[in-house]
Write a structure and sequence with these properties.
The chain has about 180 residues and is mainly beta. Helix content is about 15%, strand content about 40%. It has a single domain, classed as Roll (Pnp Oxidase, Chain A). Bound molecules: flavin mononucleotide.
Length: about 180
């Protein structure tokens, strides 16, 4: 599959200029996807200097079972993406309802994100696990990356899962956070 690279906002021709492409405007697309709620993850890794990196991510989905694999879509401007590609490994921290503060912290630019959360390194790469905010952490090896417009699709094979006792995932949809209902 090859996806043409497009300018960031509403281009109506392909990057090559060869043939016009018909696409909806970004507002329509955002509205569409806001009606598709998801869980909330913080994707973490370690950069070339050994520093932890991480960002909030809702573009996460399961891909297949053999091997167990998932994908995340990360903005091409993201420092976390560069570190993920360089390390060829990342962790997906699935937030629980009390992880809302971490979602905000890792979802906006700012230094010292890791100074404000409880985390520990896991696996051979020392990938950051958000101990207090995640109900599960999956350590992944990067299998492949693929351009996806202004984002990069990162396919990861899941090598380790650490699950904690907190059954209620944090949710995001219609541009706001929500809680999984108590059973
Ligand atoms: C709820 C929520 C979901 C987000 N989902 C994504 C996502 O799926 N992919 C992405 O590239 N950015 C996503 N972001 C934005 C990044 O978390 C944000 O741009 C972050 O500051 C990037 O950090 P970095 O540049 O240090 O890597 C999301 C933000 C929020 C608040």
């Amino acid at each position: 599959m090859s996806w043409s690279r497009r300018s960031r906002e509403d281009a109506d021709t392909s990057a090559e200029g060869a043939r016009p492409e018909r696409v909806v405007d970004t507002g329509t697309f955002r509205e569409l996807m806001s009606g598709f709620p998801s869980g909330v993850a913080v994707v973490t890794t370690v950069d070339d200097d050994g520093a932890p990196r991480g960002m909030t991510c809702t573009s996460l989905c399961s891909v297949g079972l053999r091997p167990p694999s998932l994908l995340v879509c990360l903005d091409d401007r993201s420092g976390t993406l560069s570190a993920v590609v360089s390390r060829a490994a990342f962790a997906v921290n699935l937030l629980h309802t009390r992880g809302r503060r971490a979602a905000d912290l890792f979802g906006a630019p700012g230094p010292g994100r890791f100074a404000d959360v409880d985390w520990e390194p896991v696996g051979p790469h020392g990938l950051p696990r958000l101990v207090s905010d995640a109900h599960a952490t999956a350590a992944c090896r990067v299998v492949r990356t693929m351009p996806g417009g202004d984002h990069t699709v990162v396919l990861g094979a899941v090598e380790q899962v650490i699950a904690a006792r907190e059954p209620r995932p944090l949710l995001y949809g219609r541009r706001r956070y929500a809680q999984w209902p108590a059973s």
